[in-house]
Amino acid sequence: MNHPILSGKKGIIFGALDDQSIAWKTAEAVHAAGGSFVLTNAPVALRMGTINQLAEATQAPLIPADATKMEDLKSLIDQTLEHFGGKIDFVLHSIGMSVNVRKGKPYTDLNHDWLTKGWDVSAVSFHKLLQALYHADAMNAGGSIVALSYIAAQRTFPNYNDMADNKAYLESIARSFGYFFGKDKKVRVNTISQSPTLTTAGKGVKGLDGFLEYAELTSPLGNATAAECADYTVAMFSDYTRKVTMQNLFHDGGFSHVGVSQEVIDALMESKA
Fold first, then answer.
1. Would you say the pTM of this structure is higher than 0.85?
2. What is the extent of the structural domain holding 244?
3. Is 140 a residue whose pLDDT tops 70?
């Protein structure tokens, strides 16, 4: 969708790792829509991924920052404002990690030190980012901040583990800080609850293939892809959604409002035959 609806808009995109990540697809979509941005990720992630290729293709500066550290966020924002010569219009928070998921610890036997680390990276980092942006007065009025979530914040998906708790907290931060950002800065804060998506980070979730197949069978429109999520995020960054804030927006082909589909019933009955 090469419509220049973000022409002249500037921002920051967190979390692009490789061409499978939603943040990567979003950067490409924002670039195609006429937007400019700074790319950022944790230093360790930059060593693991191929983000330099994305930075070159989109002509975007690449600034390392650990989103769990306020000093890194403040430095990132200062450098971004200096690069653009003024305030920015959009920010994407696409950050999530669970050590318990990576290490295969079940929800009933969590390592709570690991839980705290994952909570800090996946959710508290969003509050830290919002706080840093707020106090720096870094956003133009009418700006838009988006974080990526998942329906496990509302419903139980056993293998999603402590990431479900992280996403629930993330969505709460968007509502709570969204109030202050709206009243004081006229800036929108929302979360997008995306379909299960085959990304590098998502591959760590046990049974992801089953998640994908079940959601595909349940969703009237089928699963939303990473590229489609990127297009939706562009819409959320644009002026067309300037009165949408403090919302958790389901982008899942209708999955979130279906009890059970005929396709799922047929698959269950066939397995019993």
1. yes
2. 10-272
3. yes
